[in-house]
Design goal:
By secondary structure, this protein is of the alpha+beta class. Among the domains are: about 10-45; about 55-85, no CATH class. About 20% of the residues lie in helices and about 25% in strands. The chain is built from two helices and four strands. The protein has helices at about 60-70, 75-80; strands spanning about 10-15, 20-30, 30-40, 45. Strands 1-2-3-4 form a four-stranded antiparallel β-sheet, with no helix packed on it. Helix 1 (about 60-70) runs antiparallel to helix 2. It binds zinc ion. Zinc ion binds near residues 17, 38 and 40.
Length: about 100
């Protein structure tokens, strides 16, 4: 097993660069890296073992996805819509000027 030391360069997923980048270890927890710093954007974050964070679900995209899924397999809809998706994101609608 490879030993990690402060300042070591390791691969990890950077949430700012949205990809696996070189990171320097800035904090250790036992033998495991606890915090790393991206060598590209210099952002510090917890070491995430090269795992990207779960994607944020866009309610509108989710609705569209459910719609498509329902057409493909009607039985699958019940499973997906089991979790209530609160519509919290304010929608930006293009302003229409009243034509007179
Ligand atoms: Zn980065």
């Amino acid at each position: 097993m490879r030993e990690h030391r402060l300042g070591d360069i390791i691969d990890d997923f950077c949430v700012k660069c949205k990809r696996v980048m070189n990171h320097a270890i800035v904090s250790l927890l036992g033998a495991e890296p606890a915090k790393v710093r991206c060598r590209t954007c210099y952002g510090d974050h917890d070491y995430r073992r090269e795992q990207p964070p779960p994607p944020k679900v866009d309610p509108r995209k989710q609705a569209l996805f459910n719609e498509v899924l329902a057409k493909v397999d009607p039985a699958a809809e019940a499973v997906v819509s089991a979790e209530p998706t609160p519509v919290a994101a304010p929608e930006k609608k293009p302003r229409r000027k009243a034509a007179k």
